[in-house]
Amino acid sequence: MTTVETLKKYFGYASFREGQEHIVNTILSGRDALAIMPTGAGKSICYQLPALMLPGITIVISPLISLMQDQVKALNAAGIRAAYINSSLTETQITKALNYAAQGVYKIVYVAPERLETWEFRQFVTKAEISMVTVDEAHCISQWGQDFRPSYLKIVDFVNGLESRPILSAFTATATEEVKEDIVCVLGLQNPELVVTGFDRENLYYRVENIRKKDDFVVEYVENHAEESGIIYCATRKNVDEVYELLWKRGVPVVKYHAGMDTEARKKSQEDFIYDRLPVIVATNAFGMGIDKSNVRYVIHYNMPQSMENYYQEAGRAGRDGEPSQCVLLFSARDVMIDKFLLEHKDFSEIPPEDIELIRQRDARRFQIMEGYCQTTSCLRNYILTYFGEKVTTPCDNCGNCHREYHEVDMTAEAKAVLSCVCETRGRYGQAVVVGTLSGASWARLKELGTIHYKSYGSLKDLGEKEIKALIRQMILEGYLCQTEDQYSVLKIGNKTSSELENALMLVKMYEEKEPSRRQQRGSRRRSTDMLTGEGFELFEFLRGLRLEIAREEAVPPYIIFSDKTLIDMCVKLPGDRGTMLDVSGVGQAKYEKYGQRFLTAIREYREEHGDREICETAEEENAGLPETEPQKGAFDRTEYNRAHNRPAGAGRTWDAAEDEELKREFDSGMKIAEIARQHDRTYGAIQARLKKQGLVE
Q: CA–CA separation, 489 vs 9, rounded Å?
């Protein structure tokens, strides 16, 4: 079989996504590979597919038990024999699995890095043909990565100890230039093909909310997205407990997860979330790595993460299915204090003493970059992409900052006053002293240091401390100033030339917030479900119910049966037999044999009960194809048009104030959009669009 035929047979897709085919062909040619692909871009197929086509076994080294279990369940559901070896198994189960693998029963074996050195695993590899070793979450091997795991360093000795060197492939979603170099060097990749498909997740809408009343925001947001799955990340266990309690008391179906809970409680919380029993989880960053839940519609960070790598990875757990999803970061000055405390008390017990100071400086630099993200007024997506080394041109027009209304203020004179003050300090003091001096504060500390005698003392007293700090942050971002990265950071003149400083035009953007509903509507992208009519959405929910029933029978997460996208494609294509079901994206031969008939029966029964009413809209707009203005009476009969095209009778009817009021009342009462669509005899998409216009949904 060709690679495309293998892709369709086992995974159900007719074509590769960006970068996948290139990586697959590189591996099949026998060359080492390092692939950096964003979450949700289909990294796993890039090593699973060649594993099926290579002659021997592929060993996948993975850091988390949950990740291995989910991947193996998904592979088995697709008709691929795979196994995992980790501490969740008994010694008897491990021995049995390794014996089967040595006999060629399994094509893919997932293993924790700690297991590589065990006598039993060493014995296994001497009897088996190892074609490829794949390192998942490869950034864990780098001390410069955000999630360094010393156990990953054992991989090198393991590979070197094999009788013949296999193909070595490595995959990660987050890697700066220094981490990339570290992965190649430490793993010993030989002339690897480096594939970077980009860090942009176009379906994610980034926003930063600088607010004090975070609890009010979280409650309102979650209640407005009651039928959606979401993750709320908190910096501390205490925050997790408080936010969980807050939501639970409001009747939100929610679970929590942090390291202070016992193993069984954590396991139950995780399973309740990924099995779609409860839609919302409040967690520390101990949760999420390796969780392959595809339909997470939002990720809220209650506190600022310590680095852009952490934020990108955690926020990236939203929208893995490619559907529009939101990543919201709630920021306050208190977050800075919490993160500084956590960084100062970081555990360095497994780090060589000579590297500790370098890592402290690295952490301080990353912290500054993350703080800059929270306070920048520029495009948030471009800020992220620039950090990871991607070239950007224009703002994305799909983030919170792009949809705020800014007015620019010329801060040239004020910026030069800041530069004068920093020059007078000769780079000896931190931001607090500089701000206090510029604002003319009467602190004893300033008198002690003598800054009250500077020419710049009090020169910005009319500006206010908050505005001075904002100006300093902007000057750091622009390179006019720099902040040292040691424990006692100080402000110094940056890398701009003296001529640039002399002629500097400092512009700091200040913004006035638009109406949230206006901003959100402008930034919203159509979801796949938007094309469904009320009947189509009912069918989608019907198929989701069947999927959940099967998932519970087989004790697997629902997305392992079929993704939401596959169910939507079923609603659009309405397959009636084996051939048309196999045309649905995400339905391969093995999944058809296991589940196909049950879904075909469900679709047939639904259509018999509801008739042939239109399931999905045939154009981008509900009124696409209709005249923009109705011709003279008798020239166009909207009722007849809707009847002939199996559209709801009210499709395209002009909205009036009374119907708008009725719509709002029904939505506020808790009616589902599909129910409202039937009540008004309109399409699902029309009701959703009207609710968006009223600011009731995003």
A: 57
The answer, as to whether pTM is greater than 0.70, is: yes
Which residues, at least 6 apart from 77, have a Cβ–Cβ distance to it below 8 Å? Answer: 554, 556, 560, 561, 590, 591, 594
Handedness of CA 451, 456, 460, 465 (dihedral sign): negative
Phi, psi of 236 (to 5 degrees): -130, 160
Cα first-last separation, the chain: 45
3-state secondary structure of 171: strand
Q: Report phi then psi at 33, rounded to 5.
A: -145, 145
Asked if 588 and 505 touch (Cβ cutoff 8 Å), the reply is no
Strands 229-233 and 296-301, how do they pair?
Answer: parallel
Q: Does domain 204-404 have CATH number 3.40.50.300?
A: yes
For 528-693, CATH number out of 3.30.700.10, 3.40.50.620, 1.10.150.80, 3.40.50.2000 equals 1.10.150.80
Distance of alpha carbon 38 from the chain centroid:
9
322-333: average pLDDT: 91
d(CA 135, CA 152): 9
* The one-letter amino acid at 182: D
172-186, 211-225, 367-381, 528-542: segment of lowest average pLDDT: 528-542
- Number of residues in the chain: 698
Instruction: Tell me the one-letter amino acid at 646.
Output: N
Q: Which residues of 340-374 are buried (b: 16+ CB within 10 A; e: fewer)?
A: eeebeeeeeeebeeeeeeebbebbbebbbbbbbbb
Average pLDDT over residues 647-665: 73
Closest listed residue to residue 316, CA positions, set 214, 417, 428, 205: 205
Per-residue pLDDT of 341-358, as tens digits, reads 777 777 766 667 767 777
Residue 608 has which token pair? 């018999």
- What is the distance between the alpha carbons of residues 655 and 690, in angstroms, rounded to a whole number? 9
pLDDT tens, 87-113? Answer: 888 999 999 999 999 998 999 999 999
Which pLDDT value is given to residue 487? 62
Same fold, 3-196 and 204-404: yes
Residue 429, CB-side half-sphere exposure with 13 Å CA sphere: 21
CB 571 within 8 A of CB 541: no
Could you write out the three-class secondary structure of 249-297? HCCCCEEEECCCCCHHHHHHHHHHHHCCCCCEEEECCCCCCCCCCCCEE
| DSSP labels, 374-393 | HH--S-HHHHHHHHTT----
| CA neighbor of 167 nearest in space, from 195, 196, 131, 139 | 131
- Fold classification of 3-196 is Rossmann fold (3.40.50)
pLDDT digits (tens, 9 = 90+) for 495-534: 775 556 566 555 555 555 554 444 444 445 667 766 777 7
Phi, then psi, of 77 in degrees rounded to 5: -65, -30
